[in-house]
Fold this sequence. Notes:
Layout: H1 2-16, H2 27-33, E1 44-50, E2 60-64, E3 67-72, E4 76-82, E5 85-93, E6 96-104, E7 109-117, E8 124-130, H3 132-140, E9 143-144
Amino acid sequence: MTRIMMCTAALAVALLSGCASVPMESPEKDAALKAFPAPQQDQAAVYIFRDTSLGGALKKTVKIDDKVIGETAPNTYFYRLITPGQHVLATESEFGDNTLNLNAQAGKNHYVRQSIRIGVFAGGATLSEVSEAEGQKAVAETKLAR
């Protein structure tokens, strides 16, 4: 029993420490998107951000409508223009993807937080839409991933 507890503790430490890295965009593009420009009226925009260092060694895949847009690392975000209407955002989790249905409104920025949680065998992730104020504050403290 002690051996199992030690292995579990070692796994938790591994998931909580370390630092994954992903390809990053230029500082200029990052700064421009942190001005939070409104998309054109025939488009919507989504900022998908991971604003914690929990699970620092984990990279988690993010998809929009089953299309992979990339992997997140601690304190990173993605920005994508999408068509107005219904979209399914998904993130990799321990036993399959966790999804969020997003009703993208024309001319509006949407903000989605990816939260990491520790699982039994590997870390999981969830997605939740947050307010504009909360999203802008979090994105301002992260960096733009490619």
